[in-house]
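Um, can you check?
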Amino acid sequence: MIARQTTTVFIACFLLCACGRTLGGYPRHDLQPSVAAPAAPVSSDRTMYLGLIRKMQQQGAYYASLAHIDAFRLRFGDSPALRRLEADALRETGQRVAAQSIYRGLTEGTEAAAAWHGLGLIAATEGRYAEAVQDLLKVVQLEPANVAYLSDLGYARLCSGDIAGAHEPLAEATELDPANVQAVSNLALWATLSGNESGAEQIMQRADLPQATRDAVRRSAWQLRARSGSAANAGSPEPAGAGVASRAATRPAAGIPGGLLDRLGSSTPAYKARP
């Protein structure tokens, strides 16, 4: 890889995260526009510097993080954690072949779960959903209570056509963190694809999801049904904006974890997934 120019380690710009971007092909409606204040000059402490690189990536500054990863490596040397951050940045900037190579070298050891997750996201991005499911199963076996991993496994199963198999990880993810927008959206998507439209409406209304997120869930359901050829009106055009949400029916939302509807929208989430 051509060496990138080493820079003096300062962050003196505002980092803007775009709304509605995707992560590895997965819908991420929980990411909202945000502006970070300029950081102070980085000290010589490697832990602080590594944390700064992570924060840059959380804010969407993946290209900038690659430059700082090179600077970190020159100053402090290499580590599995640094290689994981590099692979994540390469994946997010479309350099998937290079990212895969790094991830494969990390599938044993402290970054194994993150590495298998990265490989699963790349497979899903490229439409290799059966492979993505296998990779994400390894992730969940390593970290069975990680909400993000459970949600991504469920979504990959939905994309592969395994609607029934998607239920358990999505239900677990939403029970662990009822305030997690991605997990709640994916559970609503599962309910829609299972034919339980009223259940999906209950989930989204009780979680107080914004209208744009509800519309995105309906569009995703339409696209997955159309792709599998199982849409009730396969020849009809995709609804513009997916329409306005109707009031959910009062029948029970079959398959939704007991007590979950009462917990959705709680200001005290039960669990927060690791970034």
Residues 1-25, 29-38, 230-253, 265-275 have pLDDT under 50 and may be disordered. The two ends are 27 Å apart (CA to CA). The beta strands are 16-17, 22-23, 26-27, 34-35.
